[in-house]
């Protein structure tokens, strides 16, 4: 009975729900599969178009609703891929749970640079685009959650290196398991280097490919998804970054799956910093905030929706993490972006220690090259954004007006307290960068080593 409200939501969200429930129907019925989205066992995604999903969903929408959440327990999962089962570190799957403009690209690099980690940058982008194109604007909680079943299934498949599951969501549909439409393919080192990309290059050029996403796409040609899956299997570990899962509780089914060995790094950032960064980046959505900043007057129709969503999602997730329920134990680490920006090497060591993985020299080198430690910009212009994001974690303090800061921190007060971000009461406090607004936090799950 606990799933009945969900059923109501699904039915109410007519067309979206049909697409979504169709996927669940498939997941629960391996024998009648046309479209094994998220079905880790098959490894082949065939003929799964949105049209098919819709058509099939309309035939028996009620069936999938009846199944509800328990279908997940019927999904067969293959044994974990373990190349050195008796010996080396257990295969670990890492999920970076983040939100936009919270520093997640930077954290992703801490895994992307590791030679034994297969890293994927935001694969759920394709799920969102295929199922819920309007989602980016949507603040409707129910709508946001509609996508989650599909997203979880896909994550499970991807961690198991069944990359072909992703093909079902890519538009246009890849043919011959080959596509040039994978979102930000160039952000994944494994997808830009041999054997996935065999372009013969000199050493210098090779590092160019690795540092420049556009260059990777240009030189490597369409992505051979089968080769990418091989590359995934050849690595000891896999990491995925996403800004499309709202809360840690949405991942419970994956975290509790013992064959997945999933560890989640939740990245959080001061919502005032997220706001300042989004105002620069998402100029249309945050148009009224820019107007406020320019004129000094708060537009009467200013919408706090987006920032409220960030604060609510963070608050729920972090409260849950701090409560340390048994199912999260040893599987959840909370990382404040500000801590990473201030102590990149130390926090990265803690991160790897939590994951139980050896920190590779190349990760440390990358950090040294791309944080404040280095001032040589000339040869590595392409990393400027990354470098800035690390150095400028607190530059919102000079970018937002005092009024905007007060307005935001009032809306997010409980979260600021929970995460240890100080409220400011005077413009002088706000602008005085020698006065830190970040309290120390060293208790679990901010620091977790077990
Ligand atoms: C999938 O599509 C191909 C070509 O479009 C077709 O030959 C094949 O029979 C289809 N498979 C299924 C299971 O419908
Ligand atoms: C364990 O790993 C070491 C070095 O990585 C290797 O030399 C050894 O053969 C491995 N042992 C087994 C049983 O796989
Ligand atoms: C798929 O690959 C086969 C063999 O490599 C080739 O003959 C065919 O033209 C390819 N199809 C497409 C649509 O690229
Ligand atoms: C992708 O790689 C596989 C394995 O090497 C190969 O058999 C296949 O032909 C490649 N596909 C394309 C489209 O190049
Ligand atoms: C770091 O910078 C040095 C010197 O520019 C370069 O040789 C090295 O390859 C860089 N390492 C990484 C991981 O970026
Ligand atoms: C800035 O903050 C520091 C540390 O709290 C304090 O010592 C200093 O007096 C402040 N400066 C001004 C101008 O308020």
Automatic annotation (TrEMBL):
<dbReference type="Pfam" id="PF00685">
    <property type="entry name" value="Sulfotransfer_1"/>
</dbReference>
<dbReference type="InterPro" id="IPR000863">
    <property type="entry name" value="Sulfotransferase_dom"/>
</dbReference>
<dbReference type="InterPro" id="IPR016469">
    <property type="entry name" value="Carbohydrate_sulfotransferase"/>
</dbReference>
<dbReference type="InterPro" id="IPR027417">
    <property type="entry name" value="P-loop_NTPase"/>
</dbReference>
<dbReference type="GO" id="GO:0005975">
    <property type="term" value="P:carbohydrate metabolic process"/>
</dbReference>
<dbReference type="GO" id="GO:0045130">
    <property type="term" value="F:keratan sulfotransferase activity"/>
</dbReference>
<dbReference type="GO" id="GO:0042339">
    <property type="term" value="P:keratan sulfate proteoglycan metabolic process"/>
</dbReference>
<dbReference type="InterPro" id="IPR051135">
    <property type="entry name" value="Gal/GlcNAc/GalNAc_ST"/>
</dbReference>
<feature type="signal peptide">
    <location>
        <begin position="1"/>
        <end position="22"/>
    </location>
</feature>
<dbReference type="GO" id="GO:0006044">
    <property type="term" value="P:N-acetylglucosamine metabolic process"/>
</dbReference>
<keyword id="KW-0325">Glycoprotein</keyword>
<dbReference type="GO" id="GO:0000139">
    <property type="term" value="C:Golgi membrane"/>
</dbReference>
<feature type="domain" description="Sulfotransferase">
    <location>
        <begin position="92"/>
        <end position="418"/>
    </location>
</feature>
<dbReference type="GO" id="GO:0006790">
    <property type="term" value="P:sulfur compound metabolic process"/>
</dbReference>
<keyword id="KW-0472">Membrane</keyword>
<protein>
    <recommendedName>
        <fullName>Sulfotransferase</fullName>
        <ecNumber>2.8.2.-</ecNumber>
    </recommendedName>
</protein>
<dbReference type="GO" id="GO:0001517">
    <property type="term" value="F:N-acetylglucosamine 6-O-sulfotransferase activity"/>
</dbReference>
<keyword id="KW-0812">Transmembrane</keyword>
<keyword id="KW-0735">Signal-anchor</keyword>
<comment type="similarity">
    <text>Belongs to the sulfotransferase 1 family. Gal/GlcNAc/GalNAc subfamily.</text>
</comment>
<keyword id="KW-0732">Signal</keyword>
<keyword id="KW-0808">Transferase</keyword>
<keyword id="KW-0119">Carbohydrate metabolism</keyword>
<keyword id="KW-0333">Golgi apparatus</keyword>
<keyword id="KW-1133">Transmembrane helix</keyword>
């Amino acid at each position: 009975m606990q799933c009945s409200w969900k059923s109501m939501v699904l039915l109410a969200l007519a067309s979206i729900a049909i697409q979504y429930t169709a996927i669940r129907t498939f997941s629960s019925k391996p024998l009648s599969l046309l479209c094994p989205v998220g079905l880790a066992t098959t490894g082949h995604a065939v003929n799964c178009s949105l049209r098919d999903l819709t058509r099939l969903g309309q035939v028996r929408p009620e069936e999938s609703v009846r199944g509800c959440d328990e279908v997940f327990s019927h999904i067969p999962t293959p044994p974990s891929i373990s190349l050195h089962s008796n010996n080396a570190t257990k295969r670990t799957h890492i999920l970076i749970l983040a939100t936009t403009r919270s520093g997640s690209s930077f954290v992703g690099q801490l895994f992307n640079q590791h030679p034994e980690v297969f890293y994927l940058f935001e694969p759920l982008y394709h799920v969102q685009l295929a199922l819920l194109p309007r989602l980016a604007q949507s603040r409707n909680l129910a709508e946001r959650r509609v996508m989650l079943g599909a997203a979880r299934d896909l994550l499970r498949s991807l961690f198991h290196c069944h990359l072909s599951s992703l093909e079902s969501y890519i538009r246009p549909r890849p043919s011959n398991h080959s596509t040039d439409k994978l979102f930000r393919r160039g952000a994944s080192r494994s997808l830009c280097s041999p054997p996935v990309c065999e372009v013969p290059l000199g050493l210098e050029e090779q590092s160019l490919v690795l540092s420049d996403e556009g260059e990777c796409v240009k030189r490597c040609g369409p992505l051979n998804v089968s080769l990418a899956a091989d590359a995934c299997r050849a690595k000891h570990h896999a990491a995925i970054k996403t800004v499309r899962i709202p809360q840690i509780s949405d991942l419970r089914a994956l975290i509790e799956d013992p064959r997945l060995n999933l560890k989640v790094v939740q990245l959080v950032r001061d919502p005032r910093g997220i706001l300042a960064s989004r105002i620069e980046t998402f100029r249309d959505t945050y148009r009224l905030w820019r107007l406020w900043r320019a004129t000094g007057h708060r537009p009467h129709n200013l919408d706090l929706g987006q920032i409220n969503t960030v604060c609510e999602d963070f608050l729920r997730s972090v409260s849950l993490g701090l409560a340390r329920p048994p199912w999260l134990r040893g599987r959840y680490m909370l990382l404040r972006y500000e801590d990473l920006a201030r102590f990149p090497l130390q926090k990265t060591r803690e991160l790897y220690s939590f994951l139980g993985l050896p920190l590779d020299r190349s990760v440390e080198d990358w950090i040294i090259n791309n944080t404040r430690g280095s001032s040589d910009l000339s040869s590595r212009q392409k990393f400027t954004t990354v470098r800035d994001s690390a150095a400028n974690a607190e530059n919102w303090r000079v970018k937002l007006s005092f009024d905007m800061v007060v307005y935001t921190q009032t809306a997010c007060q409980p979260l600021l307290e929970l995460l240890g971000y100080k409220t400011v009461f005077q413009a002088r406090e706000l602008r005085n960068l020698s006065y830190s607004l970040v309290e120390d936090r060293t208790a679990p799950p901010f620091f977790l080593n077990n």
